[in-house]
Amino acid sequence: MTTAAPKPPLVFIISGPSGSGKSTLVEKMLEVPGMMFSISCTTRPPRPTESPGKWYDFISEAEFDRRAREGEFLEHARVFGKHRYGTPRRWLEEAERKGRDLVLEIDVQGAEQVKRKLPDSVAIFILPPSREELERRLRARGQDSEEAIGRRLERARQEMQRYPSYDYLVINDDMERATREVQAIAAGMRCSRSRMDGCARKILESFGG
To answer: Which domains does the chain have, with CATH numbers?
Structure first.
């Protein structure tokens, strides 16, 4: 009986406008056993509620340049023409070593880069139910000026125009339902024939081929 080769990690990309609830849905994805999170690097300063090393590693422009130059990022981009964000390759290597699947929370620029490099990655776009609801959520956070809210809404419009390049769309008008949907996507991808082919062959061989 032959042994099936270890499966490469599934890479799940989650994108969506600020205020769409994507960070909460990433947390819900991480509740699925066998998942791990890719901590991004950014040059922006941490917000008062953020702890380094949880969602982001905060580094200088010079350090970001060095890492980008040395090919340490799977993807990287400058957002709003200001701060830079990048996904370190080491998380993919660690997921492979640990036998886990990897969750990336990245914007549409980064998602396109990852899709080019990892065509089998699974891209999920989180949509707000409407512009009005997204604006309400942004205002309810109490973190942004009027100018910043306007900028986020315009960026949301631009980002949502890119949804056709994603594999799955989840409308976050109800968090419980949206949670079930992202977790179902994870389960479904793990059960795909291409992922399970080695296991199926092994079982078939136990019947004598």
So the answer is: 11-38+100-206 (3.40.50.300)
